[in-house]
Amino acid sequence: MSERDFFLAAYDVSRPSRLAAALKLVRAYATGGQKSVHEVFLTPAERGDLLHDMAMILDEEEDRFLLLRLDPRARVYTLGKAQAPSDPDLFYLG
């Protein structure tokens, strides 16, 4: 299995049809998230595919998309009822 990096994917989309398409696309890669911010683990190829496909959906004059790579050395903190992943090295995409 290829090495995956941890990203936050966030978007601000003005039209409902594009918003639905952006949500569907990001959720195909997401392991968690809320509203328009999602946690994604991506290989370099998946990262390229996500950026390309999102560029095809969004209007660059009206919409925004941010894919932020997080530091892999950072410690995971949980608040409230959240629990750390029981197997953080294995994620199923499909």
TrEMBL record:
<dbReference type="GO" id="GO:0016787">
    <property type="term" value="F:hydrolase activity"/>
</dbReference>
<keyword id="KW-0540">Nuclease</keyword>
<dbReference type="GO" id="GO:0046872">
    <property type="term" value="F:metal ion binding"/>
</dbReference>
<protein>
    <recommendedName>
        <fullName>CRISPR-associated endoribonuclease Cas2</fullName>
        <ecNumber>3.1.-.-</ecNumber>
    </recommendedName>
</protein>
<feature type="binding site">
    <location>
        <position position="12"/>
    </location>
    <ligand>
        <name>Mg(2+)</name>
    </ligand>
</feature>
<keyword id="KW-0460">Magnesium</keyword>
<comment type="subunit">
    <text>Homodimer, forms a heterotetramer with a Cas1 homodimer.</text>
</comment>
<dbReference type="GO" id="GO:0051607">
    <property type="term" value="P:defense response to virus"/>
</dbReference>
<dbReference type="InterPro" id="IPR019199">
    <property type="entry name" value="Virulence_VapD/CRISPR_Cas2"/>
</dbReference>
<dbReference type="GO" id="GO:0004521">
    <property type="term" value="F:RNA endonuclease activity"/>
</dbReference>
<dbReference type="Pfam" id="PF09827">
    <property type="entry name" value="CRISPR_Cas2"/>
</dbReference>
<keyword id="KW-0255">Endonuclease</keyword>
<comment type="function">
    <text>CRISPR (clustered regularly interspaced short palindromic repeat), is an adaptive immune system that provides protection against mobile genetic elements (viruses, transposable elements and conjugative plasmids). CRISPR clusters contain sequences complementary to antecedent mobile elements and target invading nucleic acids. CRISPR clusters are transcribed and processed into CRISPR RNA (crRNA). Functions as a ssRNA-specific endoribonuclease. Involved in the integration of spacer DNA into the CRISPR cassette.</text>
</comment>
<dbReference type="GO" id="GO:0043571">
    <property type="term" value="P:maintenance of CRISPR repeat elements"/>
</dbReference>
<dbReference type="InterPro" id="IPR021127">
    <property type="entry name" value="CRISPR_associated_Cas2"/>
</dbReference>
<keyword id="KW-0479">Metal-binding</keyword>
<keyword id="KW-0051">Antiviral defense</keyword>
<keyword id="KW-0378">Hydrolase</keyword>
<comment type="similarity">
    <text>Belongs to the CRISPR-associated endoribonuclease Cas2 protein family.</text>
</comment>
